[in-house]
Write a structure and sequence with these properties.
Elements: E1 3-10, E2 15-20, H1 23-32, E3 45-53, H2 56-67, H3 71-79, H4 82-90
Antiparallel strand pairs: 1-2, 1-3
């Protein structure tokens, strides 16, 4: 089974990070407002990044890691800029 860690950009510009075993259904649920919580009042949302994992545990670990990152590191991840992610990690930015 495939699991995803994903990042959404909300209408207010904030990022939301989560995980799912059905990415399309989860995004649709966020978009419709049927998931009570952070994204419900910040719609519309858009998928800006996702990565697949072979187990739920790996996806949850990645979710936890990315949630702790600074906005700059999240934006570098969205851009696929691994050099900047590394630079930010070494400059004392939240990991």
């Amino acid at each position: 089974m495939t699991f995803w860690t994903y990042m959404l950009r909300c209408a207010d510009g904030h990022y939301y990070v989560g995980h799912s075993d059905n990415l399309e259904a989860r995004i649709a649920a966020h978009q419709s407002g049927s998931i009570i919580g952070y994204t419900q009042s910040r719609r519309p949302i858009g998928l800006v990044w996702s990565e697949t994992f072979g187990s739920r545990e790996e996806a949850i670990a990645a979710e936890s890691q990315v949630k702790g990152w600074s906005r700059a590191k999240k934006q570098a991840l969205i851009a696929g800029d691994w050099d900047l992610i590394s630079e930010l990690a070494h400059s004392g930015s939240r990991r």
